[in-house]
Amino acid sequence: MKKKIIMAALVLICAASGSPGKDGGDSATDHEWGARTAKIKDAIGPGKCIEFTPSDDPEYQNKIMSYITAIDGELAGKIKIVRVQTRPVVDYLFVNDRLYTVMEDWGPVDPSTENDIRSRLSLRFGTPLVQKDNNLHIYSYNSDTTKVLCYLTRQTGETTKCKVYFYTRKLFRMLITE
Predict the structure, then answer these.
(1) Phi/psi of residue 172, nearest 5 degrees
(2) Where are the alpha helices (DSSP H) in the chain?
(3) Which of 12, 70, 117, 158 is the most exposed place for a label (fewest CB within 10 A)?
(4) Could you state, in order of their start, the residue ranges of all structural domains in the chain?
């Protein structure tokens, strides 16, 4: 019981501070959409991130990136990812040097961590819409400026693979202006 109370208090503190509970740094979603790469890298701090393009890592997967390139395939050459190797791994995706989306890749998580992630998102973004299909659950959240998709894929045993995508509500409008 005491452990549950402490965990609930930590979740509330993290949500109130805007911290996603990763190892240091600002919240992945505290940056302004459309911000320049240099501004985000300055906020992250020197030496804490790596940069790559999708062509550098053909196995790289990001659902919002797939949507962007489906709208305009020529944008694939204008995409850059800035990765912070924390728990979760955080990828900032830029198109033409402007921030479009942030992905938190939690990897496999236990039920407690899954609940913490969903609680943090609900506290910050409100009640989600939920889609359930066999082993895949998608939680969709909205705020005035941000849309959030939390993908939970049930694995064997009690673990769940978790990826959270944050992106601007003005994604289509920003793409048109590129």
Answers:
(1) -65, -45
(2) 2-17, 37-44, 63-71, 111-125, 171-177
(3) 70
(4) 2-177
The edge-to-edge listing of strands for the beta sheet with 98-109 is 49-52, 79-84, 89-95, 98-109, 160-168, 146-154, 136-142, 129-133
pTM of the model: 0.81
All residues at 6 or more sequence positions from 56 whose CB lies less than 8 Å from its CB, including other chains: none
By residue count, the chain amounts to 178
Cα–Cα distance between 168 and 143 in angstroms, integer?
10
Neighbouring CB atoms inside 10 A of 123's CB total: 13
Name the residue type at position 8: A
Structure tokens of 104? 């938190």
